[in-house]
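Retry 2 of 3 after timeout on previous attempt. Resubmitting structure tokens to design endpoint.
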């Protein structure tokens, strides 16, 4: 009996694989579609506490802020010419402003600002919990600021020729909605506003005992010793300089040094080689030149022995003698411009020596300052050991010699003269809090625009900080020092009779630098509102340090109490975990 052999059908691997791939593609497409709506971002929590949370979409807003902060710092550094070349080398452009943000934030590294964003979120949640516990809520004014932030985003979108939602998707995150941004800003505002409240609360509670202890425990942060110093023109003068107890004595030493270095050659050039008769003799001329230079430097009450033959001759002689003294002109040149008589010759010698000496006088600096350092510490320098050693007093003098060796094994010895001017001083300046802004006319096409006069009149009718911010769009400047201001503004603001609430309008001179590198002084119209005076700067700094420590301790306690946590994992850690799982 013939039996037919039934053929065995093969398993449809290809068909099943195609089905699986199609299903996977469909799933990916579905995920992408859902993800583009921002649903997953709203469902997934990035940071949480007992009563608040930040989802992934809201975290994108904080990443955007972190990128903006980095962009601003890049702009600052570039504006001051600090890192322009480095940025250009890194990003291939010297136009660092938008390109830096695009490179870091939008294109190459999507995780560039993860750490900063999660840190922001954690801080905001800690303070939001503090606000809730204290019954602190956002005010109507705060909500207006949030609305203004959204309006500013809309302006940016319009500037870029796109809708607000498209701008948010491009710059903040795909799937992030206007509502996500607004809710993120509400958490931001509640957290940061309460942070100010908490900081002020802790600051008000700092006692004098705490301030004194902070200063005593951290002397290097608050105390400094000031001194006058001069790098000796020749280290061989070290022993003689130690005997100089005043700047005047040091200047006299410098004059004598240049007498020793230059008198012989100048005497030969301007008297011997020109056949000028020196009836008094060389040594008397030497003494007369020295007396003249000391008189010119106001180091002697005697009258100068040598004087200019005439105003014109004197000016010419001074210029020529200085040039010859510094360049070492030849005897032939000396013959060409020979002095007319002995007095002129002596005048030229004195002028040349005086020019060299006074050039060194300009290098005697009274601006030296060193923060306190333990003189017994291993890292204390020779200067610190002396400045902060036992028994130091104002007027003490020392000369410190130091040897340095360069890459070619050449050793150089330098000696520096120091004189103590102030001992263990603290910054006693009382800085000011004030509003100030340049008075300018608004653009003609600006809706509701005002002229400078109209702005000032509207402010003067109701001179408050709120009115200042409304009219001039300028916020409070805190802890302003006089040296940081234009002279006219500083003089008015730091006048002894200044009272809180005082305001004025004045013209101040400011110096600007053009694109060509040239500086020019211009006059500008300003309006100023004085708010308050701060404590001495050293007390402000001590109080701030104490508050910082207390805030950190409070934050840690709040973090534990309200179970504040984030899902942050460093990108390198995430990659490592992914690699481990795959293996």
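Retry 2 succeeded. Sequence:
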């Amino acid at each position: 009996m013939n039996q037919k052999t039934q053929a065995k059908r093969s398993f449809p691997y290809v068909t099943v694989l195609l089905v699986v791939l199609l299903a996977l593609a469909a799933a990916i497409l579905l995920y992408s579609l859902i993800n583009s709506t921002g649903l997953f971002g709203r469902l997934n929590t990035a940071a949480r506490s007992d009563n608040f949370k930040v989802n992934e979409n809201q975290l994108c807003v904080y990443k955007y802020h972190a990128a903006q902060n980095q962009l601003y710092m890049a702009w600052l550094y570039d504006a001051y010419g600090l890192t322009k070349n480095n940025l250009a080398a890194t990003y291939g452009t010297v136009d660092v402003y938008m390109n830096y943000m695009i490179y870091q934030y939008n294109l190459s590294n999507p995780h560039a600002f993860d750490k900063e964003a999660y840190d922001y979120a954690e801080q905001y949640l800690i303070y939001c919990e503090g606000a809730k516990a204290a019954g602190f809520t956002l005010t109507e004014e705060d909500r207006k600021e949030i609305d203004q932030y959204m309006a500013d985003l809309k302006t940016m979108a319009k500037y870029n020729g796109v809708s607000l939602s498209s701008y948010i998707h491009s710059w903040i995150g795909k799937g992030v909605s206007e509502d996500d941004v607004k809710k993120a800003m509400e958490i931001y505002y509640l957290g940061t506003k309460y942070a100010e409240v908490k900081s002020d609360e802790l600051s008000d509670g700092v006692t004098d005992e705490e301030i004194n202890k902070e200063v005593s425990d951290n002397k290097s942060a608050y105390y400094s010793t000031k001194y006058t110093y001069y790098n000796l023109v020749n280290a061989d003068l070290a022993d003689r300089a130690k005997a100089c107890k005043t700047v005047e004595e040091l200047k006299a030493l410098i004059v004598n040094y240049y007498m020793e270095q230059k008198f012989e050659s100048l005497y030969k050039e301007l008297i011997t080689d020109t056949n000028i008769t020196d009836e008094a003799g060389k040594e008397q001329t030497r003494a007369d030149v020295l007396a003249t230079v000391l008189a010119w430097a106001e180091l002697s009450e005697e009258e100068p022995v040598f004087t200019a033959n005439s105003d014109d001759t004197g000016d010419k002689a001074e210029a020529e003698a200085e040039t010859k003294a510094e360049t070492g002109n030849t005897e032939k040149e000396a013959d060409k411009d020979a002095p007319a008589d002995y007095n002129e010759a002596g005048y030229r010698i004195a002028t040349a020596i005086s020019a060299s000496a006074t050039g060194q006088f300009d290098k005697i600096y009274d601006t030296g300052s060193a923060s306190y350092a333990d003189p017994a510490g291993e890292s204390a320098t020779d200067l610190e050991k002396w400045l902060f050693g036992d028994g130091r007093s104002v007027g003490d003098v020392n000369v410190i010699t130091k040897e340095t060796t360069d890459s070619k094994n050449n050793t150089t010895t330098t000696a520096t003269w120091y004189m103590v001017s102030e001992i263990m001083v603290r910054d006693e300046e009382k800085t000011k809090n004030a509003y100030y802004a340049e008075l300018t006319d608004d653009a003609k096409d600006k809706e509701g625009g005002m002229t400078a006069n109209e702005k000032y009149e509207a402010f003067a009718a109701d001179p408050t900080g709120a009115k200042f911010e409304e009219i001039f769009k300028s916020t409070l400047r805190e802890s302003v020092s006089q040296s940081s201001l234009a002279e006219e503004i500083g003089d008015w603001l730091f006048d002894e009779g200044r009272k809180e609430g005082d305001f004025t309008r004045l013209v101040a001179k400011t110096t600007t630098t053009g694109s060509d590198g040239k500086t020019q002084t211009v006059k500008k119209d300003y309006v100023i509102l004085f708010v308050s005076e701060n404590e001495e700067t050293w007390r402000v700094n001590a109080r701030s340090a104490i508050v910082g420590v207390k805030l950190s301790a409070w934050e840690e306690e709040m973090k534990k109490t309200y179970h504040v946590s984030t899902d942050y994992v460093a990108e390198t850690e995430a990659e490592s975990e992914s690699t481990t799982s795959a293996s």
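Attempt log closed. The chain has a mean pLDDT of 84.
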